[in-house]
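(wild Malaysian banana) hypothetical protein (Musa acuminata subsp. malaccensis), 124 aa
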Amino acid sequence: MARVLVLLAVLAAASAWESAKAPPCSKITEMIVPCIPYLIDKAAHPGPKCCSGVRDLRKATKTHDDLVAICECLERAAHLFPGIDHPRADNLPHLCGVRFNLTFSPSVDCKKIPGPEELEKHLL
């Protein structure tokens, strides 16, 4: 009986670990697509669906590894949306009311971006 309980606990922990990972790149791209008009300077402000996607993406970012995965996905996806204005992209989380190190810039080393843990330390 104890072995069964230990096995169930291990499976539950593994399941929780899996659900804590960043979303797949296709999902990340879907979350950002509503922002494209703003990012390519066709809209003055990000729309509600854009900001909802940015907030959802921030909620999915629990660890530095999640942030690295999201950053690397956005770098790969950026070529799909030519004309992204990088300063606008860098300001997107702020305009959506979210503290989030989100970047589309291909010149950024995603592994060096401060993760959510570091941001929380600065808030304390």
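The radius of gyration is 17 Å. Residues 21-120 form a domain with the Hydrophobic Seed Protein fold (CATH 1.10.110.10). ok done for today
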